[in-house]
Amino acid sequence: MLKFLKILSVFTGTIIGVGIFVLPFVVSKAGFLPVVFYFLLLSIIAIFIHFIYGEVSFGTKELHRLPGYTREYLGRNWEKISILTVVLGLFGALLAYLIVGGEFLHLFLGSQFGGSPIIYTLLFFSFGSYLIFRGIKSISEIELSLLVIFFSIVLLFLIKALPSIDINYFKEINVKFLIFPYGVILFSLWGSAIVPEIKEMVQGDRKMLRKVITTGILISTFTYLLFIFIVFGTSGPNTSKEAISGLSSVLGSNIIRLGFLFGIITCFTSFLTLGLTLKKVFWYDLGLSKNLSWFIASFIPLFLFLLGIRKFIDIIGFTGAIAIGIEGVIIVFLYREFSKKMLSKKMNPLFYILPIFFILGVILEIFYFIWR
Questions:
Q1: How far apart, in whole angstroms, are the C-alpha atoms of residue 50 and residue 73?
Q2: Is 260 exposed, middle or buried (0-12, 13-18, 19+ CB in 10 A)?
Q3: For 31, phi and psi rounded to 5 degrees?
Q4: Please, which residues have CB within 8 angstroms of residue 256's CB and are 6 or more apart in sequence?
């Protein structure tokens, strides 16, 4: 049981990341009911995609990440697309965690110790990159305790905020922003990058892998909706972009400081696991040395941050709809070829519908960013 909880904490800690702080703001724009619909639909799709990716990972002897599996089953041309998609997607995610994690660390410690926000981002980066260098053993040992703290803070938020929640806020729908939630919610539910890592941790237990995937995504969905209920229910149209600071008038400064700690934990756990995954993409699939892979995976997001790329909502939406959308298409095609070669299975109609769904999502997101 303890082994399952540790593995579940790594998977869930990867999924529940910076997206949680954007979601109440998304609801304030699009409305609560459209966001619930997106969660119901995309949770099912995310579980399915993670399942089939897990099957490919289990059925392949070599240690790979997505580009390596793509090369083996789809060929070199698809591998190039896969490398570009995965690397850009993970760089985007790590950059978002750096931006928001550093901001929360500054809000939590800055009033006591002073210093600019960039110093706290560098501090966040230093601890995170060190643990990425150390590897999964160091990460899994702290993930479970961090998640316990995380859920304790959510529960405290709920208790404190419940008397101030206004149900009327949840009735509004804004048709103009109906596309807006798609990319952010897809980003918030996606943990495929960590699936090969989880496969190694379960040590051949397919049933445990499926249980981790299902439980992790359902816990994440429930947590997101609960957090939306707390933040949007109290702040309504005044919901802030990073969710926490807008609660100060309702919860008080001490609870808000706890909220900043909540933000640090959430961003840090995801930064660790995704950073480790990107390191292994360069190491396992591109054949770079272990240390060089760590350096590229860790320092490129920092370099992008220092260049001034810091609009985290745009980064999350774009990464979710486009990079993850293309990754979803690749995983479906990957499983189709894997099934033909290794399992001799007939294709489920879903394998023809899902790529169309993801491509449509990419197109709509591009149009949204152009015409908004």
A1: 17
A2: buried
A3: 110, 155
A4: 244, 245, 247, 248
* Residue tagged 């083996």 (tokens): 72
CATH code for the domain of 198: 1.20.1740.10
Question: The tokens 């272990």 sit on which residue?
Answer: 290
Two tokens at 254?
């001490």
Q: For residue 128, give the 3-state DSSP assignment.
A: helix
Residue type, 67: P
Show the domain range for 344.
2-371
Q: What tokens were used for 94?
A: 């790590």
Domain count, the chain: 1
Taking the CA atoms of 174, 175, 177 and 180 in sequence, report the sign of the dihedral they define: positive
The answer, yes or no, to whether residue 5 has pLDDT greater than 80, is yes
Structure tokens at 82: 């896969």
Tens-digit pLDDT profile for residues 290-345: 999 999 999 999 999 999 887 777 778 777 778 888 999 999 999 988 888 766 66
- Per-residue pLDDT of 309-321, as tens digits, reads 877 777 787 777 7
Tokens of 294: 């760590």
Handedness of CA 159, 107, 18, 210 (dihedral sign): negative
> What region, left, alpha or beta, does residue 274 occupy, with left being phi > 0 and alpha being psi -120 to 50 degrees?
alpha
Looking at the DSSP bridge assignments, the partners of residue 67 are: none
* CA–CA dist 248, 229 (Å, integer): 16
